[in-house]
Amino acid sequence: MNKRFLYLLLLPGILFLAAFMLIPIMLTIASTFVQDGQLTLEGYLHFFRDGYFNRILFTTLRVSVVTTLVCVVLGYPAAYYISRTSARKKSILLALAIFPLLTSPVVRSFSWMIILGKKGLLNTFLLSTGLIHDPLEIMYTPVAMMVGLVHLFLPLIIITLLGVMENLDYELVLAARSLGASSFTAFRKIIFPLTVPGLIIGSILVFVGSLTAYTTPALLGGKERVISTFLYQNAMTLNDWQAASVIAVIMIVITFVVVGLMNKWANRLNPKG
Amino acid sequence: MNKIMGTVLAFTLTAALTACGTSGNNTNGANSATTNTTTNNAVAQETDKPAAKDLVISTWGFSEDFFKEAVYEPFEKEYNVKIVVEIGNNAERLNKIRQGSSDVDVIYLSDYYAQQAIDEDLFEKVDRANIPNIDSIYDLAKAPLGEDYGPAYTIGRLGIAYNPALVKGEVKSWKDLWTAFPKNLTLPAITATAGPMIVDAASVVSGSTEFNEDQAYAKLKELDSNVVKYYSQTSEYVNMFAQEEIAGGPIMEMYFKDLKAAIPAAVFVAPSEGAYAVMNTLNVVKGTDNKELAEAFINWQLSKEVQEKSAKGKIDSPVNTEVVLTEEEAQGVTYGADVIGKLRKLDMKFVNQNITEWTDRFNREIGG
């Protein structure tokens, strides 16, 4: 078949993306540089000079970074275990792991209220054991937000890591062991470097997901605001689309920077990856 | 590796953008279907009449079954129209008509959002001669946003609900918010419909006879350490109340039944300084082809028949003065000329002029 004809098959998809994604994004970005018909950076300067906005940005980044780290720490061993079990057990464990993704964020957030609330399971348990005397205030704090986000995104990192781990050649480990490496050295020198791509992709997905999550921070987050709820307030209740666009562009830039940094880091850890 | 990174980059960018756009829906209970079509087959199948016109109604979507059965279907039959319903919260639906991308004829909005639409010239002026039922509703509801625009079809009130086991002393006035709720209070977020009312209440409590913004904010700041969360959705309030995360706070009377269901000892009070009137209005959207039909619909929503059914079903408080309710039927409903007469009403024009600044101050000085 003519090669040019094959390119034509791409056309509908590209046109669709251009019309409904690229052009709107470009227009959104362009609109942030224009104020009263003049080209200006004022929209951005206004935000970055503002201590209040910087605080929101800092909270958001802190929550996203901690969520990502916790997901990595919890997800990596879980994915490793799942990848090494029998096929039947694997499918059950995988189904359990992705279960949180199948429930609505609203239901998920309300269920955390039952667990973390003043009269929730955790506090009731801790009070009954005498470990604490006053209920811990976890709900409506950044900690509750992080717990909710880890719950939401842990499946993502497990799935991405599992994809990589399942394709590992474990004979490499056996070879290393036979040459005298301890199991920890074999893990450090062989398994970990080979799973770095999955780790990076998973981390990016979790980080960006946490950065842009709206429902979970809105329901669990209490008085501290994050960038997505701030954007929503500007766009939907104050009808200030200019400010909302500026915030959206800042979020996009943060995403690009983080992806770029992680890419660099991944190349250092696994140059041949 | 780089190929993978490229794919991830594209994916994350999409995720970042879609997350901004869609997430709002999840919190107002309209996750999936934002448009909903109500048809009446009986009307459509009658062949001797001309094909039914569409009348597009934009509304919140609560108590959908009630509205379908008691409001839309009888109207469809009488006027040989097909009612199409669009659902969403106030802000979403107002934005839709702002962008001109919708063919809504009649819109249900709270007075606060309706005022924004009026300021932006998004409504038709109504012809009161086509809405004769206006004569039988409370004066307060007749023209809440001016003679040119639609009436309020329901007036609710914002008072204080509380769990008697968790408050210190009695709660009778707005002042008691400052003393009776040790670290277990919720207040509406500034951008919620009731937000500006709390700013006004704080000004009243500060002792100022006229509205004083600075004093109100100073007073609200005092209260902040006792606030667990500023709620945007009533469902959040109900959940916090049921889980005893909060002892209570300001809430609209119509939602009190949900609190009572969770905690039977719950109490609702109209504060002594006056509860706030919360009005929901009906208006005709600019550019409609069905203006008279839209006005007929507004008239129907004000009729004694609909008002009585919706009051008895505890869906909306009535504004039609001919509606008579027994004491039991009136429970949880804002009902009676004396109750309506005592309500405080905010000037929505004034609120809209100040809301951006109030929101900014609230964000910076008080809390989310």
From TrEMBL, chain A:
The chain crosses the membrane at residues 56-80, 92-115, 143-165, 186-208, 241-262. Keywords: Cell membrane, Membrane, Transmembrane, Transmembrane helix, Transport. It comes from the Bacteria. Residues 57-262 form the ABC transmembrane type-1 domain. GO terms for biological process: transmembrane transport. CDD domains: TM_PBP2 (cd06261). It is found in: Cell membrane. One of its GO terms (cellular component) is plasma membrane. InterPro entries: MetI-like (IPR000515), MetI-like_sf (IPR035906). It is a multi-pass membrane protein. Belongs to the binding-protein-dependent transport system permease family. CysTW subfamily. This is ABC transporter permease subunit. It comes from Paenibacillus monticola.
From TrEMBL, chain B:
GO terms for cellular component: outer membrane-bounded periplasmic space. GO terms for molecular function: thiamine binding; thiamine pyrophosphate binding. InterPro entries: SBP. GO terms for biological process: thiamine transport. Keywords: Signal. Residues 1-21 form the signal peptide. The keyword Chaperone does not apply. It holds the Pfam family SBP_bac_8. Gene3D superfamilies: Periplasmic binding protein-like II. This is Extracellular solute-binding protein. It comes from Paenibacillus monticola.
